[in-house]
Each structure stands twice: as C-alpha cells, then as structure tokens.
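Kindly inspect the following:
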Amino acid sequence: MGHEAGEFREAANPSARIAATSPVSASSRELRAMERALELARRGPRHDPNPQVGCVLLAPESEASSAGATRPEQISTVGAGLSGLLAEGWHRGAGTPHAEVAALDLARAREIDVHGATAVVTVEPCAHTGRTGPCARALIEAGIARVVIGVEDPSALAGGGARLLREAGIEVVPGLLREEGLALLGHWYDAARLGRPWVTLKTATTLDGRVAAADGSSRWITGPEARAHAHRIRAEVDALVVGTGTILRDDPSLTARLADDDAHQPLRVVVGRRDIPEDAAVRAPGGELIHLRTHDPAKALAAMGERGVRDLVLEGGPTVAAAFLRAGLVDEIHAYVAPVLLGAGAPAVGDLGVTTIDGARRFHTDRVEQLGDDVLIVACPVAGSTSVGRSTITCSFPTKEF
C-alpha cells in the first residue's frame, strides 16, 4: 500500500502554493528514498542562507525490479533495500548546485539515463534564477517523469516549482515525510514564510520582573544551568541582536561560550545610532560584528535578512525589546525566571503603550522547563493579539530543539 502524502498548507505567496486537490500515494520505495534524502540533506551546512536539501533519483518502477538496475559503478552509496537508485545529491551551501542539480550532475557524469525517472527531494524544487538556475526547469529538461516532495517552499521568490513541474506534465506528489522535513529545516521555513528572520526575544529576570538591580548590576540573576542553556541557543541561531544602550551599559561579548571550541559563533548585530566604543567586548574575537544605525526594527530585520540571517535572538535591553514588540516583530519569547526578588531596578520590557488590561500583549505558553533553580518559559503570541502583526503565528510548529 502506498503512503498518503498530505496537502500543503497555503504558502505566504498564494501563487507559489502547491495545489494538490487530493492526496496522492507514494510508494514504499519512495518513502525509503525520502528517508535517504533527509540523511543527505543533513550533510549540508546548517547556517546558510539556503535550506538543507537532499535529492534521490530513482529508476521507474518497471526498471527498478529488473536485474542490475542499481550497479556499484553507478553510485557509491545505496540506501538499504532501496532498489533502482540512480543518483543522489545534496546542497553544499549558497552558490553551489542545489540538491536536484547535484544529483543530475552525478548521473550525467556516470552516463546514467534519468529519462522517465522519479526525483525524491526534501524541499520543493525552486522556480527562480539566483546564483544558480531553477531546479524545476533542470528536472523538466532532464526528462524526469515524477517528483516526490517533502516540504513546500513558502517563499515568494523561490516557490512555485511544483506548479512549473505540473504544467510540464510531470506528476507531483507533495508532503511525504513533511513533519520530518520541517524539523530539519527549522526556522529557515519560518523565515521564508514570513519574509523576514524569525525573532526570539530572550529575557532573564527576577520573580518581580527585573533585569538589573537599582545600581544597574545584573550579573548574575540566573544560575549556571540557565546560562548554559542560553549559550547553547546562541550557538544554534544565525544572529544575536542588542541595542547600543546594552553595549554601553553591559559591554557584552555576544559569543556562544560552550565546551566545544568549534561551536558556531552567530553574527553580532548592534542596533542604534550611537557609536560602538573601540575597546568594546563585542569587537573581540567571535562572530562578525555589524552595526545597523537605525531605530526601526523592520529595517533592521530587512538588513539582516539580506545577509542571510534566518533566525535570531534579541538580547537587547528594555528599549529594544519594547520596540520589536510594539512593531509586532517578536515570534517567540524565551523568558528565564530566577527565584530572586529585587523590588526595584530596570524592567525586562519598556513602555508598550498599554494603559488598560484589555490592551495587554497576550502570549501562549508553549512549554516550561526547569533549569537548576530557574525556570524557562517559552511563549508565542496569541492569534489576533496586538503583539503580532500577522494573523496567526505559533512557536510550537515547527520548533527547533536546542
């Protein structure tokens, strides 16, 4: 029996959605091929403007069962029990061939005929020309007869590949192992859907909501377990963002400090018009430092998006936090709360313009985790709340585990 591939939900650009009027069956062989494609995708870089994508090319079913359909000289690695494997590939980073083209190139180099074959790919083939040509067009020109897709591409720029394939008479099977594909893509998918980086606001407060004492001291409100957790998250995201006020007041280094010396160091972004001191800790070795001389959160996100940032942690003080919240540009909150009382000092968030309880910015608790004596609350905006500028945003699907 075939595996039912679900319909895609609507993409950010309606013209780019994959219109599947009814579920289409994928074979057991194609299911195994998608599992292999996901394995291949994981070989690609995690921190890259482009998603991690894998592709497997399969011979037609009629040929796959014949003797010698997959030969050792054709491909070096053959998935366990996967008959008719012709070629495979994965995306190695921006500027290199996409997974589909990499697989086609391998087949061509080994003189393997892919006419009539099936392409199993973890993400919808792109339909635009960037640093490389459109993958959908490459599959069409290669004579591929069937394309099985894991996750739709929701971006306005690159989406629409499935439509091109269907218009060329190619059968398209959408949504195979979509949940697994989304888990691999993480916040790349969210950024493509939203048209901007995914924003996580991080706060570390006392029980009474203070981020610093009356004299400005703040090290350390939370304990070692919570701080270690925050550093693991830093090592997973593309960028850390603070305002110039935090730089001048706290002099943070904005690095991921882990036992692993090879940990990813995120881009360090400072937002605001004041100069960064020449001896600031943020200028020390670590991720690249960029200074965005603006007070407009949307402009700051656009600038980061142009640099390939797909997700970021906002670690700025009350002023920056309030600015992003007022603009509806916070998708998730990581609130570390320590069992500490100060009674006075700076709050976690500045003035939001809320004057009555009816105007409160409401969030939904997605999960709670105890970290030593502290607690981490992960919350996302409630649909329809004034805390977001879009109709529905949830932080539980998909989510990235840190």
User: Anything to note?
Assistant: DSSP finds eleven helices and 15 strands in the chain. Confidence is low (pLDDT under 50) at residues 1-23, 67-80, 384-394, 396-402. Residues 3 and 320 are 48 Å apart (CA to CA). The longest strand covers residues 363-371.
